[in-house]
Specification:
It is built from 15 helices and 14 strands. The chain is an alpha/beta fold. The protein folds into two domains: 146 residues, Nucleotidyltransferase, domain 5 (2-Layer Sandwich); 186 residues, 2-Layer Sandwich (Nucleotidyltransferase, domain 5), CATH 3.30.420. The strands form two sheets. Strands 5-4-3-2-1-6-8-7 form an eight-stranded mixed beta sheet, with helices on both faces. The chain has a six-stranded mixed beta sheet with strand order 11-10-9-12-14-13, with helices on both faces. A hairpin with an 8-residue loop joins strand 13 and strand 14. Helix 1 packs across helix 3 and helix 7 crosses helix 8. The chain starts with a strand and ends in a 21-residue tail after the last helix.
Length: 421
Amino acid sequence: MDILALNCGSSSVKYQLFDWIRKEVIAKGMVERVTVGDSYIIHEVPGRETYREEYECPDHTTAIHLIIKVLTSKDHGVVSDMSEISAVGHRVVHGGEKFTCSVKIDSAVLDAIKEVQHLAPLHNPPNISGIEAAQANLPDVPHIAIFDTAFHQTMPKYAYTYPVPYEWYEKHGVRRYGFHGTSHLYVSKRAAVLLGKAPKDCNIITMHIGNGVSHTAIKNGVSVDTSMGLTPLEGAVMGTRCGDIDPAIPAFIQEREEMSPREIDNVLNKKSGVYGVTGKYTDRRDIIEAAEEGCERSQLALEIEAYRLKKYIGSYFAAVGNLDAVVFTAGVGEMGWLIREKTLEGLQAMGIIIDKDKNRNTMTRKRETMITTPDSPIKAFVIPTDEELVFTEDVVAILEGTYTDHMNFKYSFAESTFQRK
């Protein structure tokens, strides 16, 4: 049984083909610059050289057609034809309040996803285009939606309700939703295994740190608070997003700089964060290198990010009570030892005692590592995320009729016998 996972962005389509029987990735890749021009595909197969092909993709339908062409290619493909694919899993960023778990896509589900696309205007429209394109290219297989927001639907009302006019929530759905749900789900269940406890017995803070950054307070195995809000703009300092700021700033700058609301929104989403502070960098490796060379703004960006991360650990410690572990994941979380060190320094009084040598030697996308000392009352782990495996397991379980929700479903990676390939 081969499962195709698709993640459609505004100008890209990521894909992964997974062999469920052998429990391994057959192929993965990305089509870049979709709708932009000069598009191309990067296709990776274990044991082979990476394949690149220039191919104009003016829309997502063409991009998915290209993926199918390459997957079935005589020279570069991995399947003889698409009949070998049993189902397609689609990442959908925003499911609103309606979806609390993954679901099979029918016309009613697709309509419901379209109804909340105004809540994620940068993400849901390309997700929808990808679903429709995949359905057109693969009309005879089931298509499953996996929602970023579903994991966070366990938040209590006092955590997700904003202190603004209540009718905004009733009329427009203004509330905290949260994102990166599949990542937080995966690493929290892996952390429970490393702790030797059942997920329901664990209190964990998960820190997904990449270009996009979000943190989640997990109490008794479920999300009770998360840093991203109505949109992915709220929360931590990110690559180009500002995160938490005084909400009066946009109106103030709009008046002073004579900018439109759309221009302000663009700046906060695409020209802020560490990019806004440094004026040139989003990649933390570039920032660290520049900081080491004496760039004051790069040094400042590092200090701001680590300070904000530290504050979230403190606030979520208060939210969950007896904390078992802090988990770092995603690109920066897995590779950025300096940011982890700056974040955890000074938290000994809380019960987090970092092992600096172990932390500095932990830069991997493949291995799970504890970066605190053995006697640290609260553990800190680096756990590489695997959102595509969550996609795949949800899809297979829905096909087999065994899926319930993330709280009750038994994922393979939540077992002590699980081994990451």
